[in-house]
Specification:
Layout: H1 8-22, H2 29-36, H3 40-43, H4 50-73, H5 78-95, H6 97-103, H7 111-116, H8 118-132, H9 140-160, H10 170-186
Helix pairs in contact: 1-2, 1-4, 1-6, 4-5, 4-6, 4-8, 5-6, 5-9, 5-10, 8-9, 9-10
């Protein structure tokens, strides 16, 4: 029997909260069921299993992170947009480490569920839109997206793991990294002859 009030959304949110508190790898069906005060079997009326649940957490996180980035960057262009985008990304990763982790690993997600989730698609649109403001076109756009994602994720991952032991404040390094990214995007190197997409 399905417990009254229990929905796929409530199960997903409980898993997301657990991921933020204990880490994504600690999200199990048993722990989520315990958190909701139900038996494990009750969850299977709402999600197909652990991989489906983690996929739902990833989609929830993508929606949340994209919404924050969209709100931060609205009406901005150039360096202002880049800084607002990056700061919103970093802030989300720090506030929701487990949810953020779910967006950074490959999880098999139900294609029907993914098709209905606006977050991933909107994230691509926002990123490419911001970079077009720098006058970039393909294949440079894709290369620039990968540069941004690598920089933002690498910095956040090292910072979260305590990987910056130097006395210089990470915030100052973050600001300089964004200065460097802006300069790189403004002076993007010409493509090489024979470059394939």
């Amino acid at each position: 029997m399905v417990r009254a009030g229990l929905t796929a959304e409530r199960v997903t949110l409980a898993a997301a909260e657990l991921a933020d508190e204990a880490g994504l790898d600690q999200v199990t069906m048993a722990r989520v069921a315990s958190r909701l005060g139900v038996k494990d079997a009750s969850l299977y009326s709402h999600v197909r299993g652990l991989e489906d649940l983690r996929g739902r957490v990833a989609l929830l996180a993508a929606d949340e992170k994209t919404l924050r980035i969209a709100e931060a960057t609205v009406g901005r262009a150039g360096k202002d947009a880049l800084v607002a985008f990056a700061d919103a990304w970093r802030d989300y990763a720090h506030r929701h480490p487990g949810r953020y982790a779910a967006t950074q690993i490959r999880i098999r997600i139900d294609p029907e569920l993914a098709a209905r989730a606006p977050g991933p698609r909107r994230a691509v649109e926002l990123t490419y839109g911001m970079l077009r403001g720098y006058g970039l076109a393909e294949p440079d756009l894709t290369d620039a997206v990968r540069l941004l994602r690598s920089t933002f994720h690498g910095f956040v991952a090292l910072e979260s793991a305590g990987g910056f032991g130097h006395e210089r404040a990470p915030q100052r390094s973050w600001e300089r990294a964004l200065d460097a990214l802006h300069a790189t995007l403004e002076h993007w190197p010409a493509g090489r002859d024979g470059d394939a997409s």
